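Weekly puzzle thread! Below is a chain. First person to post its structure in token form gets bragging rights.
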Amino acid sequence: MKKIISLLLLFAIIFSLCSCDTYVSSYKAIGLVRSSTSHSCKASFLSLEGELVFKLKRSDSGSEGEISYSVSAEEGEIRLYYDIYGAKEELAYVKAGESVSSNGGYIEGGKTVYVIIEATGNAHGKVSVELDN
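Winning reply:
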């Protein structure tokens, strides 16, 4: 009986590890305010260290689009990435006192997009991302 329970527990652990999303948020923060919809996300923070991940999805399966983003840092450093096909690509990098707003990153319709915010140096800033048609 113990062998059966041990095997079931082992299978449950293996299944839970295999069914996880590609990216997992891992951060420490003070004053973090974040929001997201299926096609946009925003985060502002007084202090952020680590990786904050959002999962977005293009709703229109027939068209192409790109990502509109805005990143600003009052302190620390912020890197903004996106991932569609398993290859993390950088959209923006800002240091203390810098900001950037732009478009980029080709996105096929109906695809899931991971937006990854990496912050170092107890970053204080804002990030806004929207999937355009």
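Puzzle host: Confirmed. Bonus trivia for everyone else. The first helix runs from residue 2 to 18.
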